[in-house]
Amino acid sequence: MHPHYPLTRLRRLRSHSHVRDFFRETRLALDDLVLPIFVEEDSDDFTPIAAMPGVRRIPERKLAFEVERLARAGIRALMTFGISHRKDAQGSDTWSCDGLVARMIRTCKDVAPHLVILSDTCFCEYTTHGHCGVLHGEHVDNDATLVNLGRQAVVAALAGADIIAPSAAMDGQVAAIRSALDENGFDATAIMSYSTKFASSLYGPFRAAAGSDLRGDRKAYQMDPMNRREAIRESLADEAEGADALLVKPAGACLDIVREIRNASALPLAAYQTSGEYAMIKFAAAAGAIDEGAVVREMLGAIKRAGADRILTYFADDIAAGRLAL
Ligand SMILES: [Zn+2]
Q1: In a 10 Å sphere around its CB, with 0-12 CB exposed, 13-18 middle and 19+ buried, how is residue 179 labelled?
Q2: SS3 label, residue 16
Q3: 8 A C-beta contact, residue 248 and residue 195
Q4: pLDDT tens-digit map of 78-132
Q5: How far is the CA of 221 from the centre of ligand 1 (A)?
Q6: Which CATH number goes with the domain that contains 95?
Q7: Can you give the residue range of the structural domain that contains 232?
Q8: Domains: count for the chain
Q9: Residue 261 domain-assigned?
Q10: What would you report as the CA-atom Rg of the chain, rounded to the nearest whole angstrom?
């Protein structure tokens, strides 16, 4: 029994649906969401991703039509991932002015200049070994990779990216990108770093989607999911290096981390609902085990309630298209 019962009756605020709605603390809107997209060069057809029902690789040749459709549906922001067929040891296509990174961004901005374009800034989709930077033997060379991150960021900014989103999990990546951008006249281009990125087992479907040929794992640079204090240090380090916004990945398995970073920093904070989280909901719904719409609302709502201002989610397309309601 509540100590102040019957004076306090918490059920008063939920007895009727219109009153319940009136007092709802957390509200979701399409404006909160960022849709990650996969764009494949040298391809004519949309390619379904078996592990992510409803998500397709977009052929670069049809990207303009697709972006137009998404913008018309009310999508506010896109994060671009490329599926490259010009891989090399360093991922040098990413810092070519006519490479896939630059072309994707130019197409998006040509078609829908008011869409916010976040350029995922890494190398794993563009390297033959699938790691997020320059390999020396078995290890990714942190400081050599920083130079290349700066190059890629400048090319993305030149192509029109609004936000550079480094996901390589290199120490010093924000500072390196900030100085490369500023030296090249892009002091107005923002950085939203993947400031706390765990070596999560929830990224599996993404690797198939992005065509990453990873050998080994990324545990030498992405964080151990069991570490809480380190997760906060990582994000605060990026803030100190000049990040304009922070990002936690994955989202649903890290709500405690989202809340702690929210409390520790005043920067805008995003969380990335991963391909694994998406797949779990889609397959459970297809099996009739859960109500997809209700679970999506509850999971996205929990991420926002934990403190995320923005959520990267593959469900943004279903929501914008009206297949799922918020
Ligand atoms: Zn990567």
Answers
A1: middle
A2: coil
A3: yes
A4: 999 999 999 999 999 999 999 999 999 999 999 999 999 999 999 999 999 999 9
A5: 10
A6: 3.20.20.70
A7: 27-245
A8: 1
A9: no
A10: 20
In a domain, 86, yes or no: yes
Cα separation of 110 and 91, whole Å? Answer: 25
Asked if 79 and 39 count as a contact pair (C-beta separation under 8 A), the reply is no
Q: Which two tokens stand for residue 242?
A: 């000049």
pLDDT digits (tens, 9 = 90+) for 171-205: 999 999 999 999 999 999 999 999 999 999 999 89
- Who contacts 15 (Cβ-Cβ below 8 Å, separation ≥6)? none
Whether 145 maps to a domain, the answer reads: yes
Please tell me the distance between residue 194's alpha carbon and the centre of ligand 1 in angstroms.
Answer: 11
DSSP state of 224: P
What's the pTM? Answer: 0.96
Band of the pLDDT at 1, cuts 50, 70, 90? low
Residues serving a catalytic function are 197, 249
Tell me the CA–centroid distance for residue 127 and ligand 1, in Å.
Answer: 9
CA of 130 to the centre of ligand 1 (A): 8
Q: 142 near 176, Cβ under 8 Å?
A: no
SS3 for 119? strand
What DSSP string runs through 40-77?
Answer: ESS--S-EE-TTSTT-EEEEGGGHHHHHHHHHHHT--E
131 CA to centre of ligand 1 in angstroms: 6
